[in-house]
Design a protein that fits this description.
The protein is an alpha+beta fold and 402 residues long. It contains 13 helices and 13 strands. A hairpin with a 4-residue loop joins strand 8 and strand 9. It is globular.
Length: 402
C-alpha cells in the first residue's frame, strides 16, 4: 500500500467518524402533545376496574351515583357494582324467558338497568357484597353467563310440554353459586339495615334521573324506545336535537352535576392509552373493537395502521344531526361502552374536551384511568346520557314537560 492509498483510507475513516459525531448531535423533535387546562371539575370517587366483564354499564352508573352522593352530602362511598349486576342478571333471565328466548341475555346493559335495580332493591357498600364466589382473583362472567343462557335456551324449548315452576329457581341457583346471594340485610356500624333503607338514608332518589338521546328517526322532545341491543328492558329516552343534548352535558358539568355517558369507542380516534378521544379530519382505519379486551387483542400492525399519531391537537370533523343519524343507521355508531363524564377541559388550541372516567383501572393509562373526549367526538359518538333532572336547562325542561 503506498502513501496515497493510505491517505485516502485515513481521510475516509475521518469523514465517517465526523458523520457519526454530527449524527449524535442531531436533536430529535419532541412531539407537542396535548396540553389541557381545567374548565370545570366535579368531585367524584376513585376509578374502579370492571376487570374481565362486560359490566361497564354498572361501573359507569355506580360511579355516577357515588358522585351524586358526594353532591348530596352523603360522603365518599364505595358502592357494590356487583350487587346491581346480580339482580340485573335475574331480571334479564326472566325477560329472556318471557320472550321465549328471543330477547337479549348477555353481560351488557344500560344506565337505567342500575336505576331499575336500585328502585326495587336499593344499593349496598362494596364491603357488604363482593359478587365473587368462584375463587377468582378478578371478576369474570363468561362461564356463568354462557352456562345460564344455555339453561334458558333449553327451558324455553319446553321439553316437558309444560314449564315447571322451578326453572327460575334453578337459573338463579347457578347465578348465586357464582356470585353469591345478594343480601337483603347487612351490618353497618353495629346495626342491621336493608339496602333500601341504606339508600334512603343517603338521600338518593332514583326517580330524579332521566336518559336522553338524539336521533332524527323519532320525534324530538318526546320519549322513544332506543333501538339498541342492550336496551333489553325497552326503557324510554327523551329525544333532543344534538345541539340541545350537548347543552345538557355542558350545563350539568358547569353546575356541579356529572353525566353518565353511553357511546361508541370503536374508531381509532379513541385512544385510552393516549388519554384522548378525537375525531380527526384525516381518515382513520376503523378498529371494530369495543372494550379493553378487544383493544388488547389488536395486533401491532392494526395499532400502527392509524393515520393519526396523537402527537398534538388537529382539525376535527364537523358533526351535524345528519352525520349522527347516518352513522347510527349504518352501524358505525353503536353502544359499545358506558363511561362517566366528570368535567370539562380545553387543549392549547381552545378546543373543548370532556373529562371522562373509565372503568379499566387506575393503571390502564398515564392519566390514572381517565381520558379526555373532544367535543366533536362526543357530538358524533354519544348514543345516550343519563343526568339528574335539575341538570337540564330550564327551557329544555319545559319543552320536555319535566
Amino acid at each position: 500500500m503506498n502513501f496515497k492509498q493510505l491517505s485516502v483510507i485515513v481521510l475516509t475513516l475521518a469523514l465517517c467518524c465526523q458523520g457519526q459525531v454530527f449524527a449524535k448531535k442531531k436533536k430529535t423533535v419532541k412531539p407537542e402533545g396535548f396540553k389541557f387546562t381545567i374548565v370545570s371539575d366535579v368531585p367524584t370517587t376513585e376509578v374502579r376496574n370492571q376487570e374481565s366483564t362486560g359490566t361497564c354499564w354498572a361501573f359507569a352508573t355506580t360511579s355516577f351515583i357515588e358522585t351524586e352522593l358526594i353532591r348530596l352530602g352523603a360522603g365518599n362511598i364505595d358502592l357494590s357494582e356487583m350487587f346491581t349486576v346480580r339482580h340485573a342478571y335475574s331480571q334479564k333471565a326472566l325477560q329472556y324467558f318471557r320472550l321465549h328466548g328471543r330477547g337479549n341475555y348477555s353481560e351488557g346493559g344500560q344506565a337505567h338497568d342500575v336505576l331499575n335495580v336500585v328502585k326495587e332493591f336499593g344499593f349496598v357498600p362494596e364491603t357488604a357484597y363482593s359478587g365473587n364466589e368462584y375463587q377468582g382473583e378478578f371478576h369474570i362472567h363468561k362461564e356463568m353467563v354462557k352456562s345460564t343462557k344455555a339453561m334458558l335456551d333449553e327451558i324455553v324449548k319446553n321439553p316437558n310440554r309444560k314449564i315447571t315452576p322451578v326453572w327460575n329457581q334453578s337459573v338463579n341457583g347457578v347465578l348465586d353459586t357464582y356470585m353469591g346471594v345478594a343480601p337483603t340485610k347487612f351490618e353497618l356500624d353495629g346495626k342491621t339495615i336493608s339496602p333500601v333503607e341504606y339508600m334512603n338514608n343517603t338521600g338518593f332518589n332514583p326517580n330524579d334521573y332521566i336518559e336522553l338521546t338524539s336521533y332524527s328517526h323519532h320525534p324530538y322532545y318526546k320519549e322513544m324506545d332506543l333501538e339498541i341491543p342492550d336496551n333489553w328492558s325497552h326503557d324510554l329516552y327523551y329525544n333532543l336535537p344534538i345541539d340541545e343534548l350537548m347543552s345538557v352535558i355542558d350545563n350539568a358539568l358547569t353546575t356541579g352535576y356529572s353525566v353518565c355517558w353511553d357511546g361508541d369507542i370503536s374508531e381509532n380516534g379513541f385512544s385510552h392509552r393516549n388519554g384522548v378521544a378525537i375525531l380527526p379530519v384525516a381518515n382513520t382505519k376503523d378498529m371494530s373493537n369495543s372494550d379493553i379486551a378487544k383493544w388488547d387483542a389488536m395486533s401491532a400492525k392494526e395499532k400502527k395502521a392509524s393515520l393519526y399519531k396523537f402527537d398534538k391537537p388537529g382539525t376535527e370533523k364537523k358533526v351535524d344531526q345528519a352525520l349522527r343519524q347516518s352513522t347510527f343507521d349504518n352501524y358505525k355508531t353503536t353502544d359499545d361502552h358506558l363511561m362517566h363524564l366528570t368535567g370539562i377541559v380545553k387543549d392549547q388550541n381552545g378546543t373543548r374536551y370532556y373529562k371522562t372516567k373509565n372503568s379499566w383501572s387506575k393503571t390502564s393509562n398515564k392519566m390514572g384511568g381517565y381520558l379526555n373526549m373532544s367535543e366533536a367526538y362526543v357530538r358524533l359518538k354519544t348514543v345516550a346520557i343519563m343526568v339528574h333532572k335539575d341538570a337540564i336547562p330550564a327551557e329544555l325542561k319545559a319543552k320536555l314537560g319535566l
